[in-house]
Amino acid sequence: MPHFSSLSKSFLIKAGFAALALAAVAPSQAQSTAPEPFRFQFPAGYLGRLGGTEGVVDFGGEVTKVNAFGVRAFPLPTVQDLRVVLVKHNKYWEYNISTRIKDTTLLAGIVNNGDAAAGIAKLEVTHDPFKGIQYGASIQQSQLASRDSSARFNVGYASSAWQDRIRILNLVAFSLDSVTTTETRDEQSVAITRATATPYTFSQVNGGYGEPIGQQFNWRLDSTARLYTFPLNDKAQWSLDVTPSLEYRPVAGVTLNLSHLERFAGGEVALPSLNLVRHEESNATITYRIPGTPEFGLGALRVRGTRNWTSDYTYLRNDVLLNIKALPFLIGPSIGYQWGPAKDGSASQMLYALVVMGK
Length: 359
Known about the structure:
18-stranded antiparallel β-sheet; mainly beta
């Protein structure tokens, strides 16, 4: 028994010292492993995403009446690049969210429907790498009382030629459309909904080539050829776009851009939303970027002119862009004028907007 007692005392003494040592170390360990307070941080490269943001302020012809205002392609502060749209139109809200994961674009929400009484609800998935297998699906429904809707699906393949200067795309597609019309039966108006299925094919070849001329000039020629065929409807449509362009930099900070679009088209489509017609348009832009990076100051002056030869409209816009150091883009007001074809001037009006340009 005495021998057992001495061993017990020795063990208790050692255990006591160990407990004191752990008690002394525990506070310092607790301090070192305590979680840091939450601090919000923007993901890497977030400020660069803001350069694609588009501010929307459309006054049309009356500065006292705003037709639309809001923002498009605004990036959320998330690791995945999510873009949101929020625009208030006269009669509806346009709001949606989209992202691109590798070669796939995803979109969901209400999309722009111009001056209509309501927007269009849309869900879309598009996988469109420059080369390789392509596929896509979209479902959309009008927010008008008729609730017309459509669903489209496509699959195909894209290849390239001439050192990737030319892209060749071929798709097989299918469209399912539901249209509601009002008919009179037995002296009563009856809503009739009809569904139509339309298979079709789409082929496109597009590409371009350009070269510098000395230190001040750059020229380029782009073209796109398309072909739609509707085998069950005995219809087909072809179209060809040709766009020459020229860039001229006479002095430092000044750039003149000239371009012209010629679109030729022939044939007929079974789906009106795919229809293309003859179109001619010329564009000219002269930009003067003011040197320096002030905290707040004038960043650039820009004049834009557009002549729509097909519809006989001419547009002239003058942009004053401010350089705000905290923003990765230039932003400012735009004031212009639209000349329309009507001889009495009813198609002519002032144009007011808010514009954005990359730094």
